[in-house]
Each structure stands twice: as C-alpha cells, then as structure tokens.
Write a structure and sequence with these properties.
Layout (H helix, E strand, L loop, with lengths): L1 E3 L5 H10 L8 E5 L6 H5 L3 E4 L5 H7 L5 E4 L8 H15 L3 E7 L11 H12 L4 E7 L6 H5 L7 E4 L5 E2 L4 H12 L7 E5 L5 E2 H12 L4 E4 L2 H10 L4 H15 L9 H6 L6 H9 L1
Parallel strand pairs: 1-2, 1-4, 2-3, 4-5, 5-6, 6-9, 7-11
Antiparallel strand pairs: 8-10
Bound molecules: NADP nicotinamide-adenine-dinucleotide phosphate (NAP).
NADP nicotinamide-adenine-dinucleotide phosphate binds next to helix 1 and strand 5.
Length: 284
C-alpha cells in the first residue's frame, strides 16, 4: 500500500489523483492532519489516516501496513527538520520499506534559507535511516511565478533580483504525474531525480514572452535585493515573506534552479508545459 502525506495540499492531492488512474483506491492511503479537508478523498475510497508531522505516535499508527510513503516536505518557516525526522523515524518503526522525499532542485551548491538547509539535513537523515529512499529534487513551480513578479501582466517592466539567472520552471500537476509514476514503478531504490522543466528561462525570457503575448514592450530590469524587498513590502507583503521571495531571486541568480533534466519529460511521455503555454493560460 502507498501512503501520500500532505494529501490535502496541492502536490499530495494531485499525486493521489494520478495514482488513481493506475491503482485501486484500496491500495492508496492519505495522511492528513485535518480530516474535514479530506472528505473528497474518503468518498473516493482512499484510506485516510490522521497525523500531524509533529505527532510521532500518531505517525507510527498511521504508517501501519504501508509499504511506500511519499513524504511531502513540510512548509517553510516551520521546524521542518523535526517534522521530517519524525516521519522518517515513524516509518522505520512501523516497518515501511521505501520512502520518497520531495526535496528542492539544486543545480549549484547555493543554499536557500528555510529550504535547502532542511532538505539537505533530511536527505542525509533519510539515507542513514535504513529505509530504501528516493529523493525527488523538484524544480521551482510555475505556480510560484506570480509570487515573484505579480499575478497580473506587467505594464511595462518586470523587476526581480535574479540577474541573468534562469529557472527550469515546472507545473505542480506535472510533478504530481511524474511522482505517481515513480511511486508505481520499479527501479527507483536509493535514487535521486531532478524533476525540472526541460527548458530553463531567464527573467528576460519571461519579459520577452509577456511582450509577445501582450503585444507591447515589457522589459526585465534586474533589481538589487533591498529595493525588491521594499517594493514587495509596499505592495503589502510581510517583510519576512518579501525577503524569502528575494532569496528565490538570489537562488536563481546563483543557478540553483537552472539545470534541466529529461527525467520529468520521460516520465510524462511528452514535453512538459513551456513558459509560453503557462503564461498564456494563466495571465491572458
Ligand atoms: N518546488 C517549489 O516551487 C515549491 C513551492 C512551494 C512549496 N514547496 C514544497 O513542496 C511541498 C508541497 O508543495 P504543495 O504545493 O503541495 O504545498 P501545500 O499545498 O502547501 O501542501 C502542503 C501539505 O502539507 C501538509 N502539512 C503541512 N504541515 C504539516 C504537518 N505538520 N503535518 C501534516 N501535514 C502537514 C498540509 O496540510 P494542511 O492542508 O492541513 O495544511 C498540506 O496538505 C511544500 O510543503 C513545500 O515544502 C515547493
């Protein structure tokens, strides 16, 4: 039986949606911390189990009879490492064989605050746990682009502190499809996969696509970190969030999210969504 954590969130729920295309609901379990958010999963016959990542005994209980766990990483600005350690230890105690972990893409050794440190520590902990592991180094979601540059088509320019850095954006639903495929196929024991888009795009590329789609010139202006943070704060973001968003710019500038891999494309059996397709369907 396969158990997916974070099943009330985007990636976890979408992974279950894809699992259901090939796997009977009776062979799928979902870990949620709030049962009232999981009624649709229950209606589909999924075995919904309740535990918070901070509740070790509940995790051990929830993992009974499970062979594979997809650990959807905990959210930033929480004690991610403690939560991940609990999940891994509970999986060992409950007799789980194989744990998949959703980490972040790392094409360079840039360390993204709140994200990379705990991912690196989790990966090391998982590798030492004795569980069979598969590490999914997920690319930056296309769906996160709006946080960085806004959700409306820019009037005349995009300001972002990424320099010429590129991001191999990936649609979350395509990550979910690839994850479901990995969970239901063999050959992934103790493997690490970068699940990125097949092409990486700079913010100048993004501005160019916006210009082409909007039919007017839209330019990319590199920003320093401080003015970008100030601009986001002025737009209503808490300073801690604005700083976090700026750090994604620093990560992009350092090439952390730029590497491309054909793994996602092979798992999907087609080209992943391109920048132009994403912008066209989301912004226009
Ligand atoms: N690659 C990227 O661009 C990117 C972007 C954003 C996030 N991420 C990472 O990828 C993960 C999955 O992304 P997503 O978009 O699916 O995030 P999401 O929609 O926020 O879903 C997170 C899921 O984790 C569950 N969760 C959080 N803390 C938990 C806890 N203490 N115990 C049990 N469950 C807990 C949430 O439960 P509730 O529904 O109860 O809140 C939710 O189901 C995120 O958590 C984050 O680590 C990656």
């Amino acid at each position: 039986m396969i158990l997916v954590t974070g099943a009330t969130g985007g990636l976890g729920h979408q992974t279950i949606d894809f699992l259901l295309k090939t796997t009977p609901a009776t062979k799928i379990a979902a870990l949620v911390r709030n049962l009232s958010k999981a009624t649709d999963l229950m209606k589909q016959g999924i075995d919904v189990r309740q535990a918070d990542y901070v509740d070790y005994p509940a995790l051990v209980q929830a993992f009974q009879g499970i062979e594979k766990v997809l650990l959807v990483s905990a959210v930033a600005f929480t004690d991610r490492m403690r939560q991940h350690r609990n999940v891994i230890d509970a999986a060992v105690q409950a007799g789980v064989k194989h744990l998949f972990y959703t980490s972040i893409q790392r094409s360079t050794d840039f360390v993204m605050p709140e994200v990379t440190e705990s991912d690196l520590a989790t990966e090391a902990y998982l590798k030492a746990s004795g569980l069979v592991y598969t590490i999914l180094k997920n690319g930056y979601y296309f769906e996160g682009l709006g946080y960085l540059i806004g959700n409306e088509v820019p009037d005349t320019e995009i300001r972002f502190p990424a320099g010429d850095g590129k991001i191999a954006f990936v649609k979350r639903t395509e990550l979910a499809a690839a994850t479901a495929s990995l969970l239901t196929s063999e050959g992934h024991d103790n493997q690490e996969y970068t699940l990125s888009g097949s092409e990486a795009y700079s913010f100048a590329d993004i501005a160019r696509e916006f210009s082409s789609l909007a039919g007017r010139p839209i330019a990319y202006q590199n920003s320093e970190l401080a003015p970008y943070i100030a601009q986001k704060v002025a737009a209503g973001f808490p300073e801690v969030v604005a700083t976090f968003l700026a750090q994604w710019g620093a990560a992009a500038k350092a090439g952390m999210l730029a590497g491309t891999s054909d793994t996602l494309e092979r798992l999907l059996g087609r080209k992943p969504t391109s920048l132009r397709e994403y912008l066209q369907t989301t912004y226009f």
